[in-house]
What does this fold into?
Amino acid sequence: MFDKKLLNAFPQISHTNLINILKDLPGPKDLVVEHLLFKPLEIFIDMKSLRLYGVDKVYKLQESINPITNQQCIFLVSSNLAATKIICDLINSCLSISSLAKDIIKVILVPRSLIAIEKQFEEEGVFGYVEIFEFQWDFLHLGDSLLSLELIDFYKNVFVNENQSLLLPVAKALWTAFMVLGFPKTVCINGKFSTAVYKLLNRYFKEKGKPKINNESCFCILDRDFDYASVLLTPCTYASLLDQVVGIQNGIVEIKKNDGTISIKNLCNPDETYEYVKYKQFGDVLNYWKSKSKELQDKLEKSKKLQLDEMKQYVTQELQNVLIAKKNLTFHIDASELVSKVIGDTFIDYITIEKNMLENRNRKENLNSIEDLMAFGKGSASNVLQLICLFSLTQDGFTSIELNNIKIKFLHQFGFQYFETFHVLEKSNLIIKQDNNSILHSNLNKIISINKTKQMMQNMMQKLRIADDSEHCMSAAFGGSYVPAIGKLIEIICKEEMPEEEIIKLLSNYSFQVNDFKTGIKSVYVMVIGGITYAEQAALHFLEKSMNIKIFIFSTNIINGNILINSCL
Amino acid sequence: MNATDDEYWNEKSFEGFSFEDEEKDLNSTIKKIPPECEGIQIGSTKTKLENIESLDTILPKEILDKIFIKRSSEINKTCTTQEKQKNVKSTIENIVMSCTYTLESFQSLEEKIMLLQEALYTEDGNAILTVVIFLTNTLKKSIFHRILRDNPVAASHYVHYLYSKQCINELVDTLEMLGRTKDAMMMLFKFGCRNPQNCLQRFNVCANLADDQYDKQIISQLINLVGKYDMKCTQFASVVTLVSDKCKEHQNINSCRMLANEFNLSSKQLEATLLITFCQLQNWLHVDDMFVNKNWLGKDKLALSLPIGETVKLLHHNGAPSSSLTRYLKLIKDSDERLELAKKFNCHHIIIDDFSSKKDRRGLLVYKSMLQKQTESYFYADTILKSPNIKWKN
It folds into this structure.
């Protein structure tokens, strides 16, 4: 069976890859890092190892401070034009004052160098002054069996802008992962970008080497659009709500407390309290805090009554743990308070309307409820847009009149700048218009494609039984109202209730491509192109426990409803 | 194919000979000069050459060899399609695997298109864009655009490239050329919103570009809104904010209504906005004015399109006096809903009335005992209990 130690290989590979670049650039050097990269970097590298390879000072990349001196200067930035433009400006401002020493500027682009950036360096006149390196980290372990590439703006880049330049790094990371873990015999692929990544992965297998084959496992690679409901619905477990409301970035949560101070916590560090609550229903967690604080209080009280010799033992052994537990507990209570403060008033409203939509109840009433929430200012623009997308998804799209109606109300409420957002959402099929006129226009193609996307969700919900199965262990992720489709899929593949041909037939209905299907699957590697949610992770955790299988979750990034909507702004 | 090729070359050669009269149109040239003329002209040159000593008797071979440069086989070497395909493939491979490569040698259109197809086949966005940028630098616009139209994936990479470089005009032109007028309009709109100082000009262009009547209407509303706002702020305020600000300033329901009508703001949104604003101002009289009309019998009538439950909840949260709440709750027709809300917000009068309507004297007695003594509600319960008009059932 699977050895969990293998997961420890990833941070070490990332570490070595970065160090190897530094080794190639001997001598003392300054490192200038884009602020978004600090947190992911901290997962696999520390200041001590940077110092060991000659890094003198570490700066944050910003326009206002120019870190370029006579010393070698290494920029570590993500490959986007805004970040590299700052580098160009810094170099040009140096050049305007004096000449620049040769060979001192190096730029490490994460995850890869792009033609657009090389062109920019050329056009800005700095090409001759910089040497470009590429670095990408491998999957970052974010607790349990969740591994994410934490690619910044991946969904926006790939799904909204249809820019495929991040697919190659994904394929490369998968290649490394499978070289470590072995490649499953059975492969299921769904979606345009997954197909592309799988193709690129095979290119790596051909060019750079093949891993050993694992027989009793399966690799599922799916596009995010396979199941948008899991992103749009309000999640119900502690970790997923924390992510939805406060935001977990690279496993780290930052909360702003009432007194203006910020407290930061890395959820990947050992924390008994978090281990216990992360998959629990948020409501239950609030009750748990009471008993837990009492327990800690008792422990501290007890210590006051100790004899002197007991006291020594207590201080050296137990006190530290009790204090850490107290600190952790305080953080989680603050975080829960913040979550309750933000969504407490609207949580029931949202849950209720979402449930009604999933059950395909009266569409007019559902639209009315959305309008009411909006008028009373319940929820942000992003929250309401999520509901609008969910309506489209679960209720076979909008008629033109319905859409125009809700759109103008939304624009009046939140501002006309969202006009373009609606256009983007329509283009990404997050909002679908049932166009009655298209028949008149005899635009056959259009009708066919709309009908295809239309009814997809209700169809899938019926076939996979994901909407009305509150008994199912995975539905706990959404308070009993929904079973994430990815989880359901894995369940079907691993549960040997259906004959092999049936499964293949079922999957082909969802345009799955299945290679070498074998029964007796004990472990599943699932890869979501476009990001997985914490709620889905919770659901897969429940499935793992109930079926006694192993599920490894790989993802390009972590996503939630807000990130999805913000990607379309 | 061959026939047309021949024709082409024939035409060309005629053109070459007829440079004395450039104005002449091609058709007449063809007609005037019969094909035999060519033979006669060349023939006469040949006759001239026959009468002189041959070249190799005049000059030694070494010199002749120098004069007649042998065409090097490298230049103008025509590759077979297979060889071209191989070159293209390995070049794209190098781009994908971040090895060094050069595109300059791919000069024929055929090879350029092969490059693009191969790049598209890899699915790597960077390889696709690398080729697209090469094409835009080496082909004239019309051909480049035709290629983009034929390859939507390539087009979307180019569009995104222009967007990330913020080349707005080129981006909008390209989108229009691709027939994506709506995308072009939306792009202009987006840049207009980002730059409120001189957005009006862009919005006007948008209004012209929009072919959907509904889109036009939205843009013209926005233009109207921008006119009402002093554009110092970097963000556009919404219609709702505008109404709310107006309400705070004048506290006049009618002027707010007029403003809302200009934008066709829904009555639900208008009422909710006014309600929330008056709550913030703690102006309960205006709330009354707004929501409760007297009908001709002088009875209260609700003039509200908002759900009453939510409305009362909002008023309660903002500390509206109990008397106001009671007044609104009384207007709820459904007795269960009314009672539930009354319990939630401690509107004792309504709860007491409910007991009396159910003729439940015992229930009311128990309830009265829970009320604080010497309060208005306590006295009210007392009055009801003593009322001779009610036939209690217990």
